[in-house]
């Protein structure tokens, strides 16, 4: 299991050190960071990290207040507190509020690795227990299953269209190109699929154009295909940003803002839509395509 980390500290140097330790020692992936509690709480709700490393003393909301707020939201997050504070009373309060462990500053690499591994062991144990519980539940459900009930199958084309519909771009001109391109990739074996995803986008567009020629006897300009796809994904970014503005807890915003886009770019687009910035977010066509493939594999 690749554990997701979020770091909260008003010292950029500390955040950088912690991030480097997590990456260098292959402890997981860092999906976000913040220098204040307000932004952190919003991000944690949207990104759903497994482990949060949070400084005790922060401007505005302190670390204990952040932990308290997140716990109220019933988010399944494990907290590791970081601080120079040696007060037994404050440390005791932090543990009472729900932190798992406490790391003292200045940062010690060995201590950070040891504590993170302890939290990961706890998470892995919970996962094993949950899998056993789910297995027993499934066995119980199986007894009541009626063999004459037929479960309708859903085609990959319809599954892709469902995602594009949730993003609000099914009617865009580039949506059909995205559907056909994704089907082209999904029909390959896993090894060939990975090879396709590692190719340049221009090569994928050429393959898609060749498919149009063979299957539909039509030919498209490669540049036109690229522009249609780019416009459709840009529209999806705008729609996701608007979902987040209207409701930060929106199901599709939470699901897609970090899997199909870079979350930092989504936030830029949100600021642009609010009139707080002159520049909107940027898209990565490769990340969008890879994200939908992962989404189809994991969700449906």
Q: Level of helix content?
A: 55-70%
Give the count of helical stretches.
13
User: How many structural domains are formed by the residues?
Assistant: 2
Cα end-to-end separation: 20 Å
- Low-confidence segments, ≥5 residues, pLDDT <50? none
Radius of gyration over alpha carbons?
A: 23 Å
The proportion of strand residues reads: 5-15%
The best one-word shape is: elongated
- How many beta-strand segments? 5
Mean pLDDT value = 84
User: Order of strands side by side in the largest beta sheet?
Assistant: 2-1-3-4-5
- Structural class, from secondary structure content? alpha/beta
Largest sheet report:
5 strands, parallel
SSE succession = EHEHEHEHEHHHHHHHHH
């Amino acid at each position: 299991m690749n554990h997701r980390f979020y770091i909260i500290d008003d010292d950029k140097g500390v955040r950088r050190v912690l991030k480097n330790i997590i990456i260098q020692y292959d402890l997981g992936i860092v999906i976000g960071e913040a220098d204040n509690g307000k932004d952190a709480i919003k991000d944690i709700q949207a990104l759903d990290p497994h482990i949060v490393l949070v400084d005790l003393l922060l401007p505005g909301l302190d670390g204990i207040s952040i932990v308290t707020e997140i716990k109220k939201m019933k988010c399944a997050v494990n907290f590791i507190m970081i601080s120079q504070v040696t007060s037994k009373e404050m440390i005791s309060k932090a543990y009472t509020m729900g932190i798992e462990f406490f790391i003292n500053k200045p940062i010690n690499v060995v201590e950070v690795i040891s504590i993170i591994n302890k939290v990961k062991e706890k998470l892995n144990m919970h996962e094993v227990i949950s899998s056993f519980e789910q297995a027993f539940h499934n066995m119980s459900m199986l007894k009541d299953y009626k063999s004459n009930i037929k479960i309708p199958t859903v085609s990959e084309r319809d599954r892709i269209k469902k995602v594009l519909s949730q993003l609000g771009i099914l009617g865009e001109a580039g949506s059909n190109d995205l559907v056909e391109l994704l089907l082209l990739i999904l029909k390959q074996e896993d090894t060939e699929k990975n090879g396709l995803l590692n190719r340049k986008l221009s090569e994928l567009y050429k393959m898609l154009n060749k498919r149009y020629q063979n299957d539909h006897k039509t030919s498209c300009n490669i540049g036109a295909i690229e522009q249609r796809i780019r416009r459709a994904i840009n529209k999806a970014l705008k729609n996701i940003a608007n979902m987040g503005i209207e409701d930060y807890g929106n199901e599709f915003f939470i699901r897609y803002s970090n899997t199909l886009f870079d979350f930092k770019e989504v936030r830029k687009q949100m600021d642009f839509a609010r009139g707080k910035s002159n520049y909107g977010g940027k898209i990565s066509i490769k990340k969008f395509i890879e994200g939908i493939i992962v989404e189809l594999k994991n969700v449906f």
